[in-house]
Design brief:
12 helices; 4-stranded parallel beta sheet; Rossmann fold; alpha/beta; porphyrin biosynthesis; about 45% helix; Ferrochelatase_N; binds coproporphyrin III; about 375 residues; globular; binds fe (ii) ion
Length: about 375
């Protein structure tokens, strides 16, 4: 077969994200989209609405995805890769179903998905796969041809994702006052999820007790802490902590919360803390509010110097990693055995989520996995 493009059999890349409000009138309908059927207390919803209103009703996430889109297109063009990139969201325009409809109208039939969530979990993986199944069902009901949809492997441990975070942690350390810098601890943060969801995250057999979500975050945290130690020559304490808890108080979620953690290490005499939000691909509302506003205010109240490391965002190394991951998966789909880059101890994640991976509380169809009802 002469001249197959390097991205064959894929003919489009889909950037799949969360979506966020773009003005005050969007906030309530956005939150209704997010929380439909998910049992979040009203009080919590009012509170989260206030976070958005504090920022003019605008989530930073959409502009960050527009930047990532531009970076991916530039990266593909620079490497002669003629692969169109589309963008669709779970909770706000451009909605996934509209994007998939456009993609099919443009003639594409074999789609590879990049979700803006790097780790295994129901919220970060299977729920996006359910959204893909819902969108395919909508197209099917309209009598449209259905594209085949795959999803890239989890990229939490890819050097193009971890590398920029190492650099960001070092930059944040460098921004602390010199007299507390060497004593500064690292607090790696990610989204809290219910412990029941954490325990069942990832493939049933792969990660043992505690699930893939925590294991993957610990692996990344250790990799970054090691790199920072080598670079600074200081063996500093580090911890994995959580933020953005939302469910009812009687349901256990992953702990400790970043604010409680800051209090605890301050009481133990930590001179400073660098917060490294490894659980988030960009500086969206969880980072801007829960870390930059709430946790930073808590630290000020304690008199504890803190700095926050930047997220990966549209870093060109991340765009290059996505290109590598696309070519890797394309090669694998063609039957080759590509090299698979991964840092840390866990190795590269699976291409195809196995049956029962990150199960939902109430089972629903999910595409782009071994249990997909679609080819
Ligand atoms: C693991 C995870 C990620 C990281 C992976 C990923 O990136 O996907 C993530 C990302 C995000 N979460 C976001 C926003 C929200 N998440 C909520 C609620 C929840 N998140 C959960 C988990 C996660 N969430 C969970 C278990 C819930 C409880 C309800 C449920 O089980 O569904 C709620 C409801 C109100 C509340 O906070 O209680 C909101 C508004 C935004 C947009 C931010 C912006 O606008 O800039 C982003 C990127
Ligand atoms: Fe969330």
């Amino acid at each position: 077969m002469p001249d197959q493009p390097a991205h064959a059999p894929y003919d489009a890349l889909l950037l799949l994200s969360f979506g966020g409000p773009e003005g005050p009138d969007d906030v309530v309908p956005f939150l209704e989209n997010v929380t439909r059927g998910r049992g979040i207390p009203r009080e919590r919803l009012k509170e989260v609405g206030q976070h958005y209103f504090l920022f003019g009703g605008v989530s930073p996430i959409n502009d960050q995805n527009r930047e990532l889109l531009a970076a991916l297109r530039a990266e593909f063009t620079a490497h002669g890769l003629d692969l169109p990139v589309y963008w669709g969201n779970r909770n706000w325009a451009p909605y996934l179903t509209d994007t998939l409809r456009q993609l099919v109208a443009d003639g594409h039939r074999r789609v590879l998905t990049l979700a803006t969530s790097a780790y295994a979990s129901y919220s970060g993986c299977r729920q996006y796969r359910e959204n893909l199944a819902d969108a395919l069902a909508a197209l099917e009901a309209e009598g449209l041809p259905l594209p085949r949809v795959d999803k890239l492997r989890h990229y939490f441990n890819h050097p193009g994702f971890v590398g920029p975070m190492v650099e960001a942690a070092l930059a944040a350390l460098a921004g602390l006052p010199a007299d507390v810098r060497d004593g500064a601890q690292l607090a790696f943060t990610t989204h809290s999820i219910p412990t029941a969801a954490a325990d069942t995250s990832g493939p049933a057999e792969a990660h043992g007790d505690g699930g893939a979500y925590v294991a993957q975050h610990l692996d990344v945290a250790r990799t970054i802490a090691d790199a920072v130690r080598k670079e600074t020559g200081v063996d500093r304490p580090w911890h994995l902590v959580y933020q953005s808890r939302s469910g009812a108080p009687h349901i256990p979620w992953l702990e400790p919360d970043i604010c409680d953690h800051l209090e605890a290490v301050h009481a133990e005499g930590a001179p400073a803390v660098v917060m490294v939000p490894i659980g988030f691909v960009s500086d969206h509302m969880e980072v801007k509010y829960d870390l930059d506003t709430e946790a930073t205010a808590k630290a000020a109240e304690l008199g504890l110097p803190v700095a926050r490391a930047a997220t990966v965002g549209a870093d060109p190394r991340f765009a290059a990693a996505v290109r590598e991951l696309v070519l890797e998966r394309a090669a694998a789909e063609r039957g080759a055995r590509p090299e698979r880059c991964a840092l840390g101890a866990l190795g590269p994640s699976h291409d195809l989520c196995p049956v029962g991976c990150c199960p939902a509380r109430a089972p629903r169809p999910a595409a782009a996995g071994a249990d997909s009802p679609y080819a």
